[in-house]
Design a protein that fits this description.
The complex is a heterodimer.
Chain A (H helix, E strand, L loop, with lengths): L7 H38 L4 H15 L3 H20 L8 H26 L3 H9 L4 H31 L11 H12 L2 H35 L1
Helix pairs in contact in A: 1-2, 1-4, 1-6, 1-7, 2-4, 3-4, 4-6, 5-6, 6-8, 7-8
Chain B lengths: L1 E10 L2 E11 L4 E5 L6 H8 L7 E6 L2 E2 L7 H6 L1 E4 L11 H11 L5 H14 L15 H13 L5 E5 L7 H16 L4 E4 L3 H7 L2 E6 L2 E7 H6 L4 H11 L2
Parallel strand pairs in B: 3-8, 3-9, 6-7, 7-8
Antiparallel strand pairs in B: 1-2, 1-4, 4-5, 9-10
Helix pairs in contact in B: 3-4, 3-5, 4-5, 5-6
The chains are: A mainly alpha, B alpha/beta.
Chain lengths: ~230, ~240
């Protein structure tokens, strides 16, 4: 019978916290950039300029059809070379974090753009007509009238996607980056207590994600009550 | 003020408007009526370019709406429009609804725009609701705010697209009262509506449409007294029976 030994965890907490900071940093960056780039993609897909709509659709379909872990690996292999070339960094500079950030952001933008596209389409067309009739340009109508309403409707979905994204950050272990999962793995490997450390890491992910999704659910209820009013 | 000449429009093979021509002179009130699907809403939306049309021409204050070189947003900012479903911006307070286009389109200062908005809100009898959101108002109140929002732009003419069709009966009069007052002050108005009481009271002319064509374009006394076409006679008989 396997004997559990949790003694290596307390001492490793500062190191694990460093890993958690990396995970949160990647999540936050991918969410912010993903929403910004995803909004542009969504507007391009809804555009009446056909080539633009086609390009955006291709981008979204491409990224949604390949596994995240492969995207991350490609970026781990390619982005460092590019960054070193462009910014003339010396070979020692650690660009793993940057490549992970770029990979996640570009990948998540494809998913965010689909959420945002649905959000934009959920705003009645009459709203654009009304904004146009008041003399607003298309860009003003989008920025002042459509997008604020679309985002308000989308907040729960965007947050849920952020929770999924937080879990997905564990995939950066392919680039040997010490995110929370990577840090836990390293500690477990070092002390020969892999089972305990991975169980602990799983529990932490569960607590954070479960609490966050409960919070989103509560927020959604409040939002629905507000709309019904 | 508004001149519509031989305007035709089709969606694919479906002809929505066929060779429509009419005029709205400065200070005139024109009521456009007709059975549903007759193209009256489409016609009024062509006037400020919300709907494109394939042939003919529309000019507003001498500016051609269909000309690709025309600055449509600028022209629209001078033409007020009121919609069937109000289309207030639900994420903004009433005050912001009234001032946003003044600020962003006309470049007015925030204080000036807010003052102007509140003055017009007072005029439509809703000053007490300035800080509320559209969802907290009744349909009739929302439509009055929508009229005030359009007036805040100092329009040279107003377009009304079935402004009372989405309202409960007891709210129709409060909106019509505002429109009548506006007409009596000399505002140039083109109104798509079935409210024949309103038409009798303030309209100069009635345009009757059927199947995308303007069947009659006559002063109101001849239209109500002795409609020339069989189709208009039937229409009037139906809506005036009760």
């Amino acid at each position: 019978m396997y004997e559990f030994d949790w003694s290596s965890i307390p001492g490793a907490l500062p190191f694990l916290w460093e890993g958690m900071k990396v995970s949160l940093e990647i999540t936050a960056c991918a969410v912010l950039f993903g929403i910004a780039w995803g909004t542009l993609l969504a507007m391009a897909r809804l555009s009446s300029i056909k080539p633009l709509a086609w390009l955006a659709a291709s981008y979204v379909n491409l990224f949604r059809a390949i596994p995240l872990v492969m995207v991350l690996l490609w970026f781990f292999l390619i982005v460092p070379q590019v960054l070193r070339g462009v910014f003339k960094l010396d070979a020692g500079t650690d660009v793993r974090l940057a490549s992970a950030l770029v990979g996640f952001a570009l990948f998540e933008a494809a998913y965010y753009s689909e959420i945002i596209r649905a959000g934009i389409q959920s705003v009645p067309k009459g709203q654009i007509s009304a904004a146009s009739a008041l003399g607003m340009s298309y860009a003003q109508a989008m920025r002042l009238v459509v997008l604020p309403q679309a985002f308000r409707n989308m907040v729960p979905l965007l947050l849920t996607q952020a929770i999924v994204l937080f879990q997905d950050t564990s995939l950066v272990y392919v680039s040997a980056l010490a995110d929370f999962f990577g840090a836990a793995y390293k500690v477990g490997d070092r002390d020969g207590r892999l089972v305990e450390l991975l169980l602990f890491a799983g529990a932490v992910y569960f607590v954070i994600c479960f609490a966050a999704s409960q919070a989103v659910r509560r927020y959604q209820k409040k939002l629905n009550a507000h709309v019904a009013h | 003020m508004i001149s519509i000449q031989n305007v035709s429009k089709h969606y694919g093979a479906f002809q929505v408007l066929t060779d429509c021509s009419t005029e709205v002179n400065k200070g005139e009130v024109i009521v456009v009526c007709g059975p549903s699907g007759s193209g009256k809403s489409t016609l009024i939306k062509c006037v400020n370019g919300l709907e494109p049309f394939q042939s003919g021409s529309i000019t507003v204050d001498g500016i051609s709406v269909g000309d690709p070189k025309t600055n449509l947003p600028k022209l629209r900012s001078r033409v007020g429009m009121v919609f069937q479903h109000f289309e207030l911006f639900p994420h903004m307070s009433i005050t912001d609804n009234l001032s946003i286009a003044q600020i962003k389109v006309l470049g007015r200062g925030k204080d000036e725009a807010t003052d102007k908005g509140l003055k017009l809100l007072d005029r439509v009898g809703l000053k007490a609701h300035a800080d509320k959101f559209p969802g907290q108002l009744s349909g009739g109140q929302q439509q009055r705010v929508a009229i005030a929002r359009a007036l805040a732009m100092d329009p040279i003419c107003m377009l009304f697209d079935e402004p009372t069709s989405a309202l409960d009966p007891e709210m129709i009069n409060e909106v019509l009262d505002v429109m009548v007052e506006l007409a009596q002050e000399g505002m140039t108005m083109m109104c798509v509506t079935h409210e024949m009481g309103f038409a009798r009271k303030v309209a100069n002319r009635i345009v009757f449409m059927d199947k995308g064509q303007i069947v009659e374009d006559d002063d109101k006394d001849s239209f109500f007294g002795n409609p020339r076409s069989e189709r208009a006679r039937q229409f009037l008989a139906k809506i005036l029976t009760h």
